Amino acid sequence: MDYIASGKGDTTENCDPNLISNGNTKTALEKQIADNDKEIAEAPAESAACSSESIEDAVCEIPEQVEFTVVFNKVKHEITFAYDATVLELKAHLERICGVPQSAQKLIIKGMARDNMTLRKAGVVKGGKVMLVGSKMDDILAVKSAPKAIPFQDVDEKSSSQSSKEPLCMQKNHRKVLDKGIPPDVMPGIKGVKEPLPPIPLSGMLNKHGGKVRLTFKPEQDQLWVGTKERTEKLAMTSIKSITSEPIKDHEEYHIMGLQLGATEASRYWLYWVPAQYVEAIKDAVLGVWQFF
């Protein structure tokens, strides 16, 4: 078909009738601009997709968690916590749950757990059990605010008070037991050393009657079991008001120890030939960090 020239000259519009649609003319330059606009409009969608992918990657980087049970006052608390968090961070979490201040908490996992240890290093395992020993703030404040009782003393207590300046091992009532010598089956004592409590009961010690005594610590029940041949007394640790101890002269690897169970010194339960290396651990296990008396 022959093209008909017009007065406008030999333009693209006159030469190519395919560019004419419904009376609108689109030049090559307009087409290029339209294509560029389309590319710009699509660009943000790709950028948004990248951002979404980055967020998903960040969410996936969750610290490894471990599930275990914390037992406090016979109540079980199911805990999920970061495996590489420290024991101190766990204590802060437990303070909100159990109401026991961090500084008053003792966590027993495989022995006493140190604050700077991670849960992994301390021995926490999935489904395992952690014992929490401590006193709630209300109980601590109640003890601090309680008035100091002035007990009525009879003649025996006065004489005991007057002889209190004399070393325990030189007092007559203690010499009766000490003069029998070191029991053959008592656990070995070590002078000048502090060790944690062993995983077995402390045995071979004597009471004021010369009978054999063993101590079993039950932190999960907050109890100290004092066993003799005749019976086992299960003492609540909170019932023990204070603990006194002195090394035995000429046998400083052993101590005399008194557990005060009442308001006066006359209520002390005496133990003889306590291995010196465990004395501080016994006080810490029974009295904890809050030793008011």
From TrEMBL:
Annotated Ubiquitin-like domain residues: 78-139
GO function terms (MF aspect): cadherin binding; RNA binding
Pfam families given in the database record: PH_UBFD1_C, ubiquitin
CDD domains the record matches: Ubl_UBFD1
Gene3D superfamilies documented for this protein: Phosphatidylinositol 3-kinase Catalytic Subunit, Chain A, domain 1 (3.10.20.90)
TM annotation in the entry: none
Record-linked PANTHER family: UBIQUITIN DOMAIN-CONTAINING PROTEIN UBFD1
Name of this protein: Ubiquitin domain-containing protein UBFD1
Species name: Papilio xuthus
